[in-house]
Task: inverse folding
């Protein structure tokens, strides 16, 4: 059986991209990254892709300002043969054109336990709220920001000694574990979305 082909969307350093690359290289993840696409030409994640021999495409601000980004994403991902789109630190809203081309096949990672603390500052917001537990969520993206069906979550305790920086470090370490885990189950065909909007994972234990 051929590996699951994914396209990865990034905007910055690409540390979650690197975690996926490392799992593939170790032979523990039956996934092939067909394309890495960045919303910024200066994203370091593009260098990570290049070092791993993965084709990478950088978009620029003009493409987004002109409203051409969605069409470009769809065209590039389809051309690369990507079966799923995986958002890994992609700091843009996915539009309806992408969602229509990849129905229930766009995956996002959020650094909080959704539906709590959605948006771009999930770690800071959780810390400021004084919660004792936060975490990481992997979900299907839909037309509502950070509201798609939840695939998996992992809790991260907030310690009394934590700073935002130390909490962020543990959140990211959890991301590097949960994202490959979800992609592995996706590649194995274990993940299904029910009509009621709930996600089921076979062999999750």
Result:
């Amino acid at each position: 059986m051929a590996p699951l082909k994914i396209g990865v969307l990034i905007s910055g350093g690409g540390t979650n991209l690197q975690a996926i690359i490392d799992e593939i290289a170790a032979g523990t993840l039956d996934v092939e990254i067909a394309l890495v696409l960045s919303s910024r030409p200066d994203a370091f994640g593009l260098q990570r892709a290049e070092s791993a021999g993965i084709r990478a495409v950088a978009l620029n601000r003009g493409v987004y300002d002109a409203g051409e980004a969605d069409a470009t994403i769809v065209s590039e991902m389809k051309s690369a043969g990507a079966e799923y789109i995986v958002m890994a630190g992609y700091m843009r809203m996915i539009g309806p054109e992408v969602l229509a081309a990849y129905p229930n096949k766009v995956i996002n990672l959020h650094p909080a336990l959704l539906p709590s603390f959605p948006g771009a500052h999930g770690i800071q917001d959780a810390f400021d709220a004084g919660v004792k537990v936060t975490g990481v969520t992997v979900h299907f993206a839909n037309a509502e920001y950070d509201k798609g069906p939840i695939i998996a979550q992992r809790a991260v305790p907030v310690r009394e000694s934590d700073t935002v920086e130390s909490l962020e470090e543990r959140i990211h370490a959890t991301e590097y574990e949960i994202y490959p885990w979800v992609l592995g189950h996706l590649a194995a065909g274990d993940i299904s979305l029910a009509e009621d909007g709930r996600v089921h994972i076979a062999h999750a234990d």
Summary: The chain has one domain: 4-201. The CA atoms of residues 132 and 158 lie 5 Å apart.
